[in-house]
Amino acid sequence: MLKARILLRQWAKGQQLLWQASQAEGRPPIGLDAQAHDAVLALAELDDDETRSERGTG
After folding, report:
1. Rounded Cα distance, 1 and 25, in Å
2. CB 3.0–4.6 Å: which of 7, 16, 42, 57 could bond 37 by disulfide?
């Protein structure tokens, strides 16, 4: 699962960069905004059988 988490983080970073670039160029935004990016990273940090409420963050 570690490889999947790494891939998820890399995908999220790419999506955040798309969002930032589209915003900077004045185009309609695509990708992940900062809040969505943070949510994906938080998901990637959870253990396979853990929920946010178990960790005390939700």
Report:
1. 36
2. 16
Question: CA 20 to CA 30: how far, in whole Å?
Answer: 9
Tokens of 17: 């960069």
Of the pLDDT bands very low, low, confident and very high (cuts 50, 70, 90), residue 21 is very high
Nearest-angstrom CA–CA distance, 21 and 17:
6
32 and 42 Cβ atoms separated by less than 8 Å: no
Check: CB of residue 8 under 8 Å from CB of residue 43.
Answer: yes
Say which residues have a Cβ less than 8 Å from residue 44's Cβ, sequence separation at least 6.
5, 8, 9, 12
d(CA 10, CA 3): 11
